[in-house]
Every structure is written in structure tokens, then in C-alpha cells.
Amino acid sequence: MIPSRPKALISWSSGKDSAFALHEVRQSGEFDVVGALTTVTETFERVSIHGVRREILLAQLDAAGLPPRIVPIPYPCPNVVYEARMGDAVAQAVRDGITHIIFGDLYLADIRAYREAKLAGTGITPVFPLWQRPTLPLAHAMIASGLEAWLATVDLKHLPAEFAGRKFDLSLLADLPEGIDPCGENGEFHTCVVAGPIFSRRLPVATGERVERDGYAYCDLVLEQNPSSRPSERSERRAGTHPP
Known about the structure:
Layout lengths: L6 E5 L4 H13 L3 E10 L4 E2 L6 H11 L3 E6 L5 H17 L2 E5 L6 H11 L5 E3 L7 H10 L3 E8 L14 H6 L13 E7 L9 E9 L2 E8 L7 H4 L10
Parallel strand pairs: 1-2, 1-5, 2-4, 5-6
Antiparallel strand pairs: 2-3, 7-8, 7-10, 9-10
């Protein structure tokens, strides 16, 4: 008999790091990934921090074969509310027999310590398959794997607004200013994945309007076949303040 693998969730931000972490875990075969855990702002129906539309999130997870586990949070979201809702989601995962959550964190020790502290004693073990991999070779590995992503959000303290809406590719890496992490691990940018080895199909996502708000530039991304997308909706740019 083949022994059963531990059940895991992927902490899904809609971006390249969580996508590549899922790819690595699936290749290793160590875990049975049974769902994707994502925070979505209740008011705007967008992925927290990344600002990606809910319909794109659901299309991603459908293409990845992952049931969504959406954690709704308000905007703005006090930390006590965020932690309470994430705590409820973790408790439900434990009841469902899930024992691990996979994160795409690369090297920020404070973020890893936060996740480990919040999961301590819950019955859930955090997993960091990309931890401390050098980020330039990692970025090249992501691109070489066939992963395609767009920059959905850029921090204007680090990058010009024109980077929002660019494709995450070798040309982008070459154009990043000195000191910018190639994977944006310090929050310089956040991405939205539209294709890759974890997906059964490429998502027909188009870049839309770019706007600036609260020190960030956002490029709206829209499913091309979605007839309900309206210009007024495309101008709404939302971000959260908590780890996705």
C-alpha cells in the first residue's frame, strides 16, 4: 500500500513566489496540496496587497486544480481582525485533517518568524520550500520553468510607476534598478501569475488601467473574456497591510 501524504494548503498570494513554491512541492511529491488559502478584501473583492481581482484568483485556482479557501478581511484591516480570521481558517484546516501550510517566503526572517509564531501549537506546521534560495537564480528558474506573471503592484519608493503592468521576464530583470531584489522580496513589486507548470492552461489576462494610490502604482489586470469588466471597476485599486 502507498502511504498517504500529509495534507497541506498553499498560502496563495496570486503571485509568482507562491506559484513556484507550489510547483516545487508538487515536484517533490512530499505533500498532498488540497487547497489554496488567500485573503481577499471584502469591500473590493481583490486579493490583499496584490490587488488582483477575485475572478482572476478563482481562474488561477481552477487552472491549478486547487479548491479556494478564501479568508475575507475588511479594508483597512486592523491586525487583531486579520489574526482572528486567519486563526479561524487555520482551525478549520485542522478540523479537515490538514497538517501543513506552504509559504513562498524567500529570506525575510521577521515574516517567517511571524508565521511560525502564529502557527505554533495549532497543529499546523509551516513549510518554506524556497527559503534562502538566491533570488536572481531563482527568478531565472521561475522564468525558465514557463511561469508567466505580470507586475500588478509596485512600490513607488523603489520603482517608477511604469513598471506596473510589465511582464516578469528577463527584460524586466535587466531593467531593475540597482538594489531592487529580482523577486521583489522586500515589497518592491507584487505579481499576478497567468501561466506556468502548475496550471492546466494559460489565463487570458489583459493589462488595463494603471493608477497611483497611497504610494503605490497598480496595473489593473482583467480576464479578457469577462464582459462585466467596466472602466469604473478597472480604476479601483486596493491593497492590504498584512502578509498574504
